[in-house]
Amino acid sequence: MTKPFEGQVAVVTGGSSGIGLATVRLLLEQGAKVAFCARGEGRLADVAAVLERDFGADRILWQAFSVLDADAVNAFAAAVQARFGTCDLLVNNAGQGRVSTFETTSDDHWRAEYDLKLFSQINPTRAFLPMLKASNGAIVAVNSLLAYQPEKHMVCTASARAGVQSLLKSLSIEFAPHVRVNSVLIGLIGSGQWTRRFAERPDQSVSREVWYADLARNKGIPLGRLGDASEAAAAIAFLGSRAASYITGAQLEVSGGLSRHI
Ligand code: NDP
């Protein structure tokens, strides 16, 4: 049977950890050539060495830079074009959330958060758009359930993420019928972000298993656990694949049922 991404080229931002790394691996398993980036060169190189061993160096391209550096993103797009000749799927995944209430969020924090959330979409989208148009490709944005269900302890992240959903809807209309634009809304996925928060837990004697189980219970996640990065990757790959050829401007929740809106 032909693999869903056989002969296609995918780009994943933030591909060295968590959801991005799981997506890179899944797309490689499903036949794509994959280019990915992140800021930290050491972790990228470690990850790339494993992927090159498993899938072959000819199918992988990676560069270290921030997606907020528009020149670097453009250079990456040029490298993808030179190496692979096309781009069929762009996964805008790079980023992280900010934990702060309104009273603990400074103006600089607000600006930095809006900059990250919006330009982590804008810069790669602008750089890869010509290739995506030429291939009738797709964009999948990794966003958060906070866009629709804000929480007071992540006030600026939630606000910026709502803006991202508006941007994506506009793009889905502007880029149609050539490029599909969809998003996944993540609830709690046990990735690098939660590993960092676990490491900073007040009671260091609490095990990872117990801490994650308490977190799921306290959040009231109906499926009773945090998601795995591979489960987010599966949703991303679906929206980016030809199986989703009539889906654009949509969002798919990957939250274990955490959303309360219908
Ligand atoms: P991880 O921390 O595991 O992975 C984040 C990845 O993005 C890393 O590869 C990181 O590498 C990279 N990255 C971060 N900032 C930049 C940047 N400016 N430029 C390029 N690369 C960058 O986190 P997740 O897998 O959880 O996060 C993936 C996405 O999902 C993020 O956008 C996050 O906000 C979102 N999300 C995750 C949730 C969760 O519960 N896990 C909940 C809601 C949303 P490096 O640091 O080296 O740059």
From TrEMBL:
<comment type="similarity">
    <text>Belongs to the short-chain dehydrogenases/reductases (SDR) family.</text>
</comment>
<dbReference type="InterPro" id="IPR002347">
    <property type="entry name" value="SDR_fam"/>
</dbReference>
<protein>
    <submittedName>
        <fullName>SDR family oxidoreductase</fullName>
    </submittedName>
</protein>
<dbReference type="InterPro" id="IPR036291">
    <property type="entry name" value="NAD(P)-bd_dom_sf"/>
</dbReference>
<dbReference type="InterPro" id="IPR050259">
    <property type="entry name" value="SDR"/>
</dbReference>
<dbReference type="Pfam" id="PF00106">
    <property type="entry name" value="adh_short"/>
</dbReference>
